[in-house]
Amino acid sequence: MTCTSITAPWLVPGWLPACVPLWAVPFWNSPPTTRKTPTTTSAKGWPNAASSLGEELVTFTPAPHAPYTVSDDTFRKVVMLAEQEDMLIHCHIHETSEEVENSVKERHQRPLARLKELGVLSPRLIAAHMVHLNADEIELAARHGISIVHNPASNMKLASGIAPVNALLAAGVNVGIGTDGAASNNKLDMLAETRLTALLAKVGTLDPTAVPAATALRMATLHGAKALGIDDKVGSVRVGKQADLIAIDLSDIETAPAFDPISHVVYAA
Fold it and tell me: What is the reported pTM?
């Protein structure tokens, strides 16, 4: 297995802020002569990222793809790098039932339990998906202070399942909203994802009060900022925070009359 790094040297102050992933994914089909070890690839990729550390608008996040594609040794190195450089870690976890079942079959433990043993679970972790969780794993996520990114459109398109968002929020887990990649979503529309988050939570629990509009909007804004470790700067409109704002026109016919602006933004905008 090998890793690759993606850097963005063209990102400079004055441009849009970006969080650049340092990917760790396997090249299962690459010829033996072209394969690289995690160490040699990191040696080439990390200096490019390290040269941009401290840039106001650019941050870097080690991104081991998923437990089923990344070795124990690579996870340990990712944790060490994140701790040394004070960076977050992004990983796709418990996205499908097959992923969990295969881990139990091959490793005799569920992926989250393995990641706990490897030291991956901590407030540094941004866990994408987390669809197939039992009660113990929800408690584990809360205890370790990890953040979860819910990707409802992707989970629907790939028939992955419905993440237990309501239970996670009730347990005190920080849950933000994402889109996943274009290959498993297409639209990459955060307003659409916010609407789907509120609706899926209701149909998944058969509870029409689950994840109300205000909660969904908070997940899409402040919870996401907290997951990225920048909730002291953005995510809500507060004195002293950055003016990271958008304006949504509610004057169109589909959002008029606007008796409840929050509900309109989530369900109709």
Answer: 0.86
